[in-house]
Amino acid sequence: RQKNNQKLITNLIAIDNIEIMSALLIEKQASIVVKFNSKQINYLQINNETVQGKKEEIHEVTDIWTFKKDVTSNNPNWIVAATSSN
């Protein structure tokens, strides 16, 4: 996108719901799958001109994120292992 002067803009308006879909522990690895329902504005600009989407159009978006962590680690951070959207 940068090479083509494209910029994808995402404005998060609200997170309406968060749901833990599953949680799993296999040996030392914890995994949590979380579903986020949100309201967003998404549009694409090329050379500062909007070519896809609208700056004022709000969409309801559902994202599913998978977080992983080694539970024996002293690091408190979880890693995003996968994302999907529908």
Give a written overview of the molecule:
This protein is 0% helix and 73% strand. It has 86 residues and is mainly beta. Strands 1, 2, 3, 4 and 5 form a 5-stranded antiparallel beta sheet that branches. A hairpin with a 2-residue loop joins strand 1 (6-26) and strand 2 (29-46). The two termini are 22 Å apart.
SS field, number of helical segments? 0
* Helix-strand pattern: EEEEE
Query: Stretches where pLDDT falls below 50 for ≥5 residues?
Result: none
As a whole number of angstroms, the C-alpha radius of gyration is 17 Å
What's the overall geometry? elongated
Structural class: mainly beta
What amount of the residues lies in strands? over 45%
What portion of residues is helical?
under 10%
Distance between the termini: 22 Å
Compute the number of strand runs.
5
| Largest sheet features | 5 strands, antiparallel
Mean of residue pLDDT values: 95
Features:
86 residues, mainly beta, five-stranded antiparallel sheet, 5 strands
